[in-house]
From TrEMBL:
UniProt organism field: Echinicola pacifica
Sequence ranges assigned to domain Nudix hydrolase in this UniProt record: 43-176
Pfam families registered for this protein in UniProt: NUDIX (PF00293)
InterPro entries in UniProt: NUDIX_hydrolase-like_dom_sf, NUDIX_hydrolase_dom
Protein name: NUDIX hydrolase
Length: 183
């Protein structure tokens, strides 16, 4: 999914979630920026994430992010790669050590715009996160990356307690918990 395909997909993207609907036009506009997939765009840039679930849709793989000190889905910066599906799969492999990753669908699963706090290297900025639904086997060994404090398969029932008020994760959880969203 290159820049042009991403733009076409975003233009036809439909969601029943109001917050997600509010991001679509900004994502479309960002596609036009030559630096959209680069950290050089200081005010914000595209990232890609993997919502990794088991085949039975009872658990999601979450990482305890070292810098943000929160449980999140796996993902990262595009670093110039405009194929966000490829970025999501690469980040999922690098951050989990999983080999059995299977892209459930080539369509965008979720989008989210969120603020990243300033740190020693970067000023406060936005991540325009494009997410893909990925399946993996829970019995495969996990490898914790340098970017994480921990990595765990979390039962759907306790994800709300683990992620607290992270609405975007709760939205992805809802999408994989309800039959109308399950592919």
């Amino acid at each position: 999914m290159n820049r042009e395909q991403l733009l076409r997909t975003l233009k036809s993207y439909r969601t029943p979630f109001e917050e997600e609907k509010s991001f679509v036009e900004e994502f479309i506009a960002l596609c036009e920026d030559p630096l959209a997939f680069s950290r050089e765009r200081k005010e914000g840039h595209f990232t890609a994430s993997a919502w990794i679930v088991n085949k039975r849709r009872t658990h999601a793989l979450l990482t305890h992010h070292r810098k943000l000190n929160r449980w999140l889905q796996l993902g990262g910066h595009a670093d110039g790669n405009d194929n966000l599906m490829e970025v999501a799969m690469t980040e999922a492999r690098e951050e989990s050590g999983l080999i059995s990753l299977k892209l459930v669908d080539s369509f965008i699963f979720d989008i989210d715009k969120h603020l990243i706090p300033a740190n020693s290297r970067d000023a406060e900025h936005f991540h325009y996160d494009v997410r893909f639904l990925i399946e993996a086997a829970m019995d495969e060994p996990l490898t914790i990356s340098d970017e994480s404090n921990d990595l765990a398969w979390v039962n759907y029932d306790i994800i709300p307690d683990v992620v607290k008020s992270n609405d975007s994760i709760l939205r992805m959880l809802e999408k994989t918990s309800k039959s109308e969203f399950v592919l």
